[in-house]
Amino acid sequence: MVVALYQPEKPDLRRDLKTLASFVVVYCHHRHKEAMKGPVHLKTHDVEAIADRPVRICDDCARLLAHAFTKRTHCPLSPKPACKNCPSHCYHPTYRRQIQEVMRVAGKRMVLTGRLDYLLHLIF
Known about the structure:
By secondary structure, the protein is mainly α. The chain has one domain (11-123). Helices cover 56% and strands 3% of the residues. It has a two-stranded antiparallel sheet with strand order 1-2.
């Protein structure tokens, strides 16, 4: 039996998931340089299609990405506010601390490297 992986139809959801993947990749490559990295395969999402490229990160970051994809995909709020401004935090506290660290580290690195897509994400 072949199970179809989730491909988001909504452009804002797809953009958010792609941004999450980009942040986690930047974070993992910066903070976990020595860790063994492999492709991410989720049962629910086609990560490579969403990110528009192969995603190779360590196991810890892959678990965080899986949790983030699941929570973002099932977010009931529309329009989705930034997680830090959200009235109900859906992330598990451990993952919430981790994703805050990912955003802090990767955000700085993306701005320093001149990533226009991230700058647009910050502005809009």
